[in-house]
């Protein structure tokens, strides 16, 4: 049994995590085996995401003054919180994959960009390209314009060189 001081430390730690993470998913994990839970935690850790099983009363206290305050009524039953500081898409993709694999794994609430979101929209979010993919696509578009310009200007210089060389060859033949 935890002491009052330990519980206060848990609330403070959770509050800090909730404040630092504008993206969160509350999930019910009842029926998940220990091995599956460890595998989920490992996958989330590799993606730089946080995952914590929470005590509902402490989580409700920790949610005050954070984006999680909007969904604190969802802290009921066996609850875990998956948190992301920068990429809600990766979080949604990983958690949706788990929800498909494990039918007992369910979404309770979602917070994206600091605002509560309907859990039905998590699948839509999971289907979006990740932040890295979007940056890659933007860089490709920017780079392709520059590449085309370079090819065009190089082509003009190359064609000019060919024409000058042909004129020189004609003059040498006629001389």
Can you walk me through this structure?
- The structure is a single chain.
- The protein folds into two domains: 4-128, Alpha-Beta Plaits; 129-175.
- It is built from six helices and five strands.
- It has helices spanning 4-20, 34-46, 56-63, 88-101, 122-126, 131-174; strands at residues 23-28, 50-54, 79-84, 106-112, 115-117.
- It has a five-stranded antiparallel sheet.
- Helix 1 crosses helix 3 (56-63).
Gist of the model:
The protein contains six helices and five strands. The chain is α+β, with helices and mostly antiparallel strands and 175 residues long.
For the CA atoms, what is the radius of gyration? 28 Å
Rounded average pLDDT: 85
- Overall CATH architecture of the largest domain: 2-Layer Sandwich
For this structure, what is the CATH class of the largest domain?
A: Alpha Beta
Helical residue percent band: 55-70%
Overall geometry comes to rod-shaped
The helix/strand order is HEHEHEHEEHH
Write the layout of secondary structure elements.
Blueprint: H1 4-20, E1 23-28, H2 34-46, E2 50-54, H3 56-63, E3 79-84, H4 88-101, E4 106-112, E5 115-117, H5 122-126, H6 131-174
Antiparallel strand pairs: 1-3, 1-4, 2-3, 4-5
Helix pairs in contact: 1-3
Keywords:
5-stranded antiparallel beta sheet; Alpha-Beta Plaits; 175 residues
